[in-house]
Design a protein that fits this description.
The protein is of the alpha+beta class. It is built from three helices and 15 strands.
Length: 240
């Protein structure tokens, strides 16, 4: 079982850990603790470096496997053995750009839900760009412009971003905790991680975020499309 350090400290750039499992064929290792985000909820996994005994391995992919996080290592050097202590460093520029983007999408989600009552039907992101689908019957350029302006007002309002891990029963007493059309939370999980943009948005979420919306920068809506009768897609870019 990997202790997911990123869940409580998204700003952690470096950490040490112990190898608990090795798969030579897949060139993957499991650590007892990790700050690498394994991907999910539309947010890609982190990259970086893991070092052990003077050897540095590029982290080429990270995936969740049950309660473990698999770290896939590039290169040809023999993998560190079970019990070895490793040091790890994230590709921080990529991670921080993804954090800015993910929080920007939460601002977009919060604005659209507050002002129009539309639920999310899908989403995806890459560093500094993303898209989100909403349950809109119609979407026109004038409305998209209003949404962009409202999003940037909320970014500039410098909302604090708070992360909590709550017992399932307590979490599900929060109104509108699930903003997606389909509840994607696994059945039976004992705890729910919530992300709150104080004064704007509160929802269940497993990804990484900046500490304040002022860190995002400027959000620009680059395009919008109809993806069905009541499914409209908004594309954004995050700029300095």
């Amino acid at each position: 079982m990997t202790d997911l350090l990123y869940q409580t400290d998204s700003d952690l750039k470096e950490f040490s850990a112990t190898v608990t499992a090795v798969d030579e064929a897949a060139r993957s290792i499991v650590l007892d603790r990790s700050a690498f985000y394994p991907g999910g909820g539309g947010q890609p996994c982190d990259y970086g470096q893991i070092s052990a005994d003077g050897v540095s391995y590029p982290v080429t992919s990270v995936k969740k496997a049950g309660a473990d996080v698999l770290h896939f290592l590039g290169g040809e050097a023999p993998l560190p053995a079970v019990g070895a202590t490793v040091s790890a460093a994230l590709d921080w520029q990529r991670r921080h750009n993804l954090m800015r983007t993910h929080t920007a999408l939460h601002v977009l989600c919060g604005v659209v839900f507050r002002d129009y009552g539309a639920q999310v039907t899908g989403g995806n992101m890459d560093p500094l760009e993303g898209r989100m689908d909403f349950e809109f019957a119609t979407l026109r350029g004038e409305l998209v412009g209003e949404i962009e302006a409202a999003v940037n007002r909320e970014v500039a309002a410098a909302h604090e971003v708070r992360v909590k891990i709550l017992p399932r029963e307590e979490a599900f007493q929060i109104p509108d905790l699930i903003r997606t059309k389909i509840n994607l939370l696994p059945e039976g999980i004992p705890e729910v991680r919530t992300v709150e943009l104080v004064g704007l948005d509160l929802q269940a979420d497993g990804g990484t975020h900046v500490q304040n919306t002022s860190e995002i920068g400027t959000v620009r809506v680059t395009d919008y499309k109809s993806k069905g009768a009541i499914n409209k897609r908004i594309y954004i870019k995050v700029e300095d």
